[in-house]
Design a protein that fits this description.
Largest sheet: 7 strands, mixed
Protein name: S-adenosyl-L-methionine-dependent methyltransferase
CATH superfamily of one domain: Vaccinia Virus protein VP39
Organism: Mycobacterium riyadhense
Family: Belongs to the UPF0677 family.
Helix content: 40-55%
Radius of gyration: 18 Å
CATH topology of one domain: Rossmann fold
CATH architecture of one domain: 3-Layer(aba) Sandwich
Structural class: alpha/beta
Oligomer: single chain
Function: Exhibits S-adenosyl-L-methionine-dependent methyltransferase activity.
CATH class of one domain: Alpha Beta
Strand content: 5-15%
Enzyme class: transferase
Shape: globular
Number of helices: 11
Strand order of the largest sheet: 3-2-1-4-5-7-6
């Protein structure tokens, strides 16, 4: 199915299926002998989402290597490690307000150590946030910070919905946009997202995100190629055409033009920091290595 401007999804189809896939990879990364992340909620969330392949991978009945995707748990594990470290750093700088845009099955509001007084806002499709909140409540999980779930499409008026939940634009904010700016938003929507984040950010605010350089279509192609490999192994996942064909700006350059001070790291940098090697990963511009990881501060 082609992407459209007002398409929606659950956690078994389209963009939602990628959120379940990423949580599955975090579950697998978390149960390694020397795990680089600890996400105890990933496996039960994946099982509840109801995608058979991901449920079997998350609980260890299958391994990613069995379906030709050995790289996946390391890749998404090291990405999670990078973004996990962002919030404690922001907290140490005195930031007590965090917004996770496109939160998917992210459980950082529950599994990270938040400072006293911290408040976390999670934004995603209404079906996605309702599913996660209900599932975690059934598990008896309690947020480690004051949590507000904001069910709204990022292509719509999410700032109003965010303010209605109590967001204070006069306070510095730690923003996380994980997995959004790698083709899942149209080019104009990506620009608008960064414009709106900037408008809502006072000096001292921080942002962490991953993004593709302008013109790269590596992620959309990579996910569809992965789905084809899985199909040959007998597993069908309803990804559809995930990315928009529109050209988009380089997110880091766009942030700099908006006045942010930015720092970028590569996949190789993330792997080195975690003392890991690039097993079965393409660290070049046409594979996993195409994605850049940016942190930014609003001066």
């Amino acid at each position: 199915m082609k992407r459209s401007d007002n398409d929606t999804w659950d956690l078994a189809t389209s963009v939602g299926a990628t959120a379940t896939m990423v949580a599955c990879a975090r579950a697998v990364a978390s149960r390694q002998t020397n795990p680089i992340i600890n996400d105890p909620f990933a496996e039960p969330l994946v099982r509840a989402a109801g995608v058979d392949l991901f449920a079997r991978l998350a609980c260890g009945q299958l391994e990613f290597a069995d379906i030709g995707s050995r790289w996946m748990s390391d890749f998404f594990g090291v990405r999670a490690r990078f973004f996990d470290a962002f919030f404690p750093s922001a907290g140490s700088a005195g930031i007590r307000q965090a917004v996770i845009v496109g939160s998917g099955l992210d459980s950082r509001a529950y599994r990270l150590a938040w400072p006293t007084g911290a408040v976390v806002y999670e934004i995603d499709q209404p079906e996605v946030v309702a599913f996660k909140d209900t599932t975690l409540a059934r598990l008896g999980a309690t947020p480690a910070a004051r949590l507000h779930s904001v069910g709204v499409d990022l292509r719509h008026d999410w700032p109003t919905a965010l303010r209605q939940e109590g967001f204070d634009p006069k306070q510095p904010t730690a923003w996380l946009a994980e997995g959004l700016m790698i083709g899942y938003l149209p080019g104009d929507a990506q620009n608008r997202l960064l414009d709106l984040i900037t408008e809502l950010s006072v000096p001292g605010s921080r942002l962490a995100a991953d993004h593709l350089p302008a013109g790269s279509k590596a992620v959309g192609s990579m996910i569809l190629e992965t789905a084809e490999i899985w199909r040959r192994h007998g597993f069908h996942v309803g990804f559809g055409d995930l990315s928009y064909p529109h050209e988009r700006n380089d997110a880091e350059a766009y942030l700099r033009a908006l006045g942010w001070c930015t720092t970028t790291q590569s996949l190789t940098d993330l792997l080195s920091a975690a003392d890991m090697s690039a097993v079965d990963m393409d660290i070049g511009p046409n594979g996993q290595g195409a994605i850049h990881y940016v942190t930014a501060t609003r001066p």
